[in-house]
Amino acid sequence: MKAKDGILILISGGILVSLIILITRPPAAPQPQPSQATPVDDHHKPKPVESAVFDGLINKPAPDFTLPSYDGKNVSLKDFRGKGVILFFNEGLMCYPACWNQIVAFGQDKNFPAKNTVILNITVDSKDDWKKAIDKMPELAGNTVLLDPDRSVSNLYGILSLNSSMHRGQFPGHTYIIIDKDGVVRFAKDDPQMAVRNQELLKVVEAL
Length: 208
Description:
Layout: H1 2-24, H2 52-55, E1 66-68, E2 74-76, E3 84-90, H3 98-108, H4 111-114, E4 117-123, H5 127-136, E5 145-147, H6 152-156, E6 174-179, E7 185-190, H7 198-207
Parallel strand pairs: 3-4, 4-5
Antiparallel strand pairs: 1-2, 3-6, 6-7
């Protein structure tokens, strides 16, 4: 009987120890779950390049528009029928110095007026914002700058979604459109390099 009692005591002790271990042991750490890639919010993604509207302008009548100029005049595209027109859509105040340099280069180039061609620089800036650009680079004054703050004309020409735009959907980049004397679009170039393109554009004008 004593042997049996000893065995029972050992078994009971073992059970008691096991219970104590189970009670005092810290809970197991949760197993990591497979991570699920969370898509970045759309407002952090660059909008895709879309050029269908822009590409579709070639050899078609240029959409007419009227915009206020920096000096307070209302300027309509149809007013220049019988002349060549270069539209330069640009980021404006935020595009220093590339866009500013192109605007100044246009203003200083006498070859375009000699070819009966006018330059219309179009920016989405407000008048107050564009004044800041002129204050920083006075050479900008005197050039025809049209203000498109509601982006209606920029959207009409499909400018905001092109490759040169650093803020696609919001701002133009560096884009040229050449319209002949009959009001037809003959040339369209989006320029991510944001260079001064006077010589290239002059050759196009001379070929019209």
